[in-house]
Specification:
Layout (H helix, E strand, L loop, with lengths): L5 E7 L7 H15 L5 E7 L5 H5 L4 E5 L6 H10 L5 E3 L9 H15 L8 E6 L7 H16 L4 E6 L6 H5 L6 E5 L6 H14 L4 E2 L9 H13 L11
Parallel strand pairs: 1-2, 1-3, 3-4, 5-6, 5-7, 7-8
Helix pairs in contact: 1-8, 4-5
C-alpha cells in the first residue's frame, strides 16, 4: 500500500480587504512548487482568508512562510493560529540562502540586456520595513549585502515603505541607469501602489522590476526549502512545534 504524501502548506499575508485575488495567486505558486515535489501534496492558504489556514492544515505538515523575514507574522501570528498543531516551519522565502544568488543572476542579465555596465548601474532595493521591530529591515539589508558580495561594483541602496530611509528618499539621487527591485514575495498593494507612488514622488528615472517571488527559479527554491524542513535540515533559527 503506497505511503500517504507529505503535506506542505504555503502561506502568506494575503489582503484582508479583498482576500480572493491573493489566494488565487498563492495557489498558482503552490501548483508550480508541486511540479518539483511529486512525492508531496502542496497546499496554500493566506492568513487573510478566514479559516483557510486551519482547514488546509494537516498533522506533521511543513509550513512554508512566503514572507521576506522572520518577524511578526512568522513569529507571532502563525504560531498562534496553529497552536496545538504539530508542524515544521521552513525558512521564510526572503531568508533563503539561495535567493541572493538567484536574484543576482537575474539582475546581471537585466543589466546586460540594457547594455549597461555593473559599475554604472544603481539598484534600489525597495522593502517593507516595519515600525514593530527590526527584523524586516535586517532581512533586506542582509540581502543587499549578499548582492554586493556576488556583484561587486554594483551600487545598491535600500529604501522602505514603513521606515526611514523611505523609498522616495533613497530614489531621489538615482539617475537614468537605475533599477528598482521590490524585496517582496508577491505583488500586493505595497508593490502596486506604494512603491510606484514613492518613485513618482522622487522623480525616479529608472525602471521597476518584478518582485523576487516572480523570479523563474522561485518554485524550485521553495521546493528545496520544504524538503530541508521535512528532513529536519533547516538551519538554526527555524521553528518547530
Amino acid at each position: 500500500m503506497p505511503l500517504a504524501p507529505r503535506i506542505a502548506l504555503l502561506t502568506s499575508h494575503g489582503q484582508p480587504s479583498a482576500p480572493p485575488p491573493p489566494e488565487i495567486h498563492l495557489a498558482a505558486i503552490a501548483a508550480a512548487v508541486q511540479d518539483h515535489l511529486p512525492e508531496w501534496q502542496v497546499r496554500s492558504a493566506t492568513l487573510a482568508s478566514r479559516g483557510f489556514l486551519e482547514n488546509a492544515m494537516a498533522d506533521g505538515a511543513v509550513i512554508y512562510p512566503f514572507f521576506m523575514a522572520r518577524g511578526w507574522f512568522t513569529g507571532k501570528v502563525l504560531p498562534r493560529r496553529l497552536e496545538g498543531q504539530h508542524y515544521h516551519m521552513a525558512t521564510p522565502f526572503g531568508l533563503d540562502a539561495a535567493l541572493p544568488e538567484m536574484a543576482a543572476k537575474a539582475l546581471a542579465q537585466e543589466i546586460a540586456t540594457r547594455g549597461w555596465q555593473l559599475t554604472e548601474t544603481d539598484i534600489l532595493l525597495a522593502a517593507h520595513g516595519s515600525a514593530r521591530g527590526p527584523k524586516a529591515a535586517e532581512a533586506a539589508e542582509s540581502f543587499a549585502a549578499s548582492l554586493r558580495a556576488i556583484l561587486p561594483g554594483l551600487r545598491i541602496s535600500t529604501g522602505f515603505v514603513e521606515q526611514a530611509p523611505f523609498i522616495s528618499e533613497a530614489a531621489r539621487p538615482l539617475g537614468e541607469r537605475s533599477l528598482c527591485l521590490p524585496f517582496f514575495a508577491q505583488s500586493g498593494a505595497h508593490v502596486r501602489e506604494d512603491i510606484p507612488e514613492a518613485l513618482a514622488e522622487a522623480g525616479f528615472q529608472g525602471q521597476c522590476l518584478p518582485v523576487l517571488g516572480a523570479l523563474p527559479g522561485a518554485p524550485a527554491l521553495i521546493a528545496g526549502a520544504i524538503r530541508r524542513a521535512g528532513e529536519g535540515l533547516e538551519p538554526a533559527g527555524s521553528d518547530r512545534t
